Amino acid sequence: MNLPSKYLENAVEAFASLPGIGRRTALRLTLHLLKKDKQKTIEFAEAFTELVANVKRCKKCHNLSDLDICAICSSPKRDESLICVVEDIRDILAIESTQQYRGLYHVLGGLISPMDGVGPADLTIASLEERLQQQKVSEVILALSATMEGDTTNFYLYRKLAPINVNISTIARGIGIGDELEYTDEITLGKSILNRQPFENTLSK
Length: 205
Description:
alpha/beta
């Protein structure tokens, strides 16, 4: 697809670099922006510039935040004795939508996946251990996707955190094998959290 402008080409390439967007869709989105009021398009672009410049990682849980400590970690209404371990912010949004969990979170930033070159050192496991040593935590809930990578990460975390005096549980398998947390409906996810079980119970199955 030969485009008549290098600027148009650059914009299409930028959109096409996003997951799930091919060049035809990228071209359609770019042309749509060109049809809009110029100021609206400028504001659209500035929103992403401000996003990159101002969004931070919470220093405690690694959630996305405008401040050094996110709203969840700083809320006095949250139960600090519970830490729910998730892959990324999309899982936090999914769990929060159930309104069934009032503890804190810890965002790993991914899952262990040797095929993709992702190992334990690439995740925020070290800072999770540090939190458990410094903070009074009674339970760590492993809320990772029911995939091979999720199960591998669950088992690694269980072995890694075993020496620490803390209960380790996992969400109930109301979530189908191979399902990712963010796509699970709120009722099923909420029940999976409420009906969580000790992780060691899953090892004998």
